[in-house]
Design brief:
- The protein is α+β, with helices and mostly antiparallel strands and 170 residues long.
- It has one domain.
- It contains 4 helices and 7 strands, in the order αββββααβαββ.
- The chain has a 7-stranded mixed β-sheet with strand order 1-2-3-4-5-7-6.
- Strand 6 and strand 7 form a beta hairpin.
- Helix 3 packs parallel to helix 4.
- It is globular.
Length: 170
């Protein structure tokens, strides 16, 4: 994983344990559980890559796409989810974060996508629904575009519905 060295250098207090995330598969959904340290301490997040979309009906075969979403959990809920092998109670609460925290999340997103694409090599499209839960929509697009440039392979970014859905494709 080419981003692992960068992750270890830049995010010593982020991830889960000594890894960038705790990975758990739940049916068609792959969950990447991790913590990010901000000015208030540790916060827990789950980046999910699945097949269900809230905002569109994918027409591709399941093997060809993934839907990106994010959930915030308390540190205790995240630790319990790891203990329970990735089982957690999803929520729809808006995530309020600052720009440095968003960049840390994007670093973990890069690692999650890299892991997902290695395991699912046919994937050529991502429906990005993370912004629907993130409060900072004004800088979200800039950060996701920067993140996509770091993904393995050549990916292009297209905004479909502001504050809801982006399309990222090869």
């Amino acid at each position: 994983m080419k981003h692992l060295k960068t992750f270890n250098q830049l995010n010593e207090m982020n991830g889960y344990g000594e890894e960038p995330f705790f990975y758990a598969k739940d049916g068609d959904q792959e969950n990447y559980l991790f913590k990010v340290e901000d000015q208030n301490g540790h916060r827990g997040f789950v980046i999910s890559i699945g097949k269900f979309s809230k905002f569109t009906q994918p027409s591709e075969a399941k093997a060809d796409y993934g839907v990106l979403s994010i959930t915030e959990l308390s540190e205790e809920e995240l630790d319990q989810a790891v203990t329970d092998k990735g089982v957690y109670e999803p929520n729809e609460k808006r995530i309020e974060i600052d720009a440095p925290t968003l960049r840390k999340i994007m670093t973990t997103l890069n690692l999650a996508v890299e892991d997902y694409v290695q395991n699912e090599p046919k994937v050529n499209k991502f429906y990005d629904e993370m912004q629907a839960n993130i409060q900072m929509s004004d800088i979200y697009d800039e950060n996701i575009k920067d993140a996509v440039n770091e993904w393995p392979g050549e990916w292009s970014f297209q905004q479909i519905e502001k504050n809801q859905l982006n399309l990222i494709s090869k």
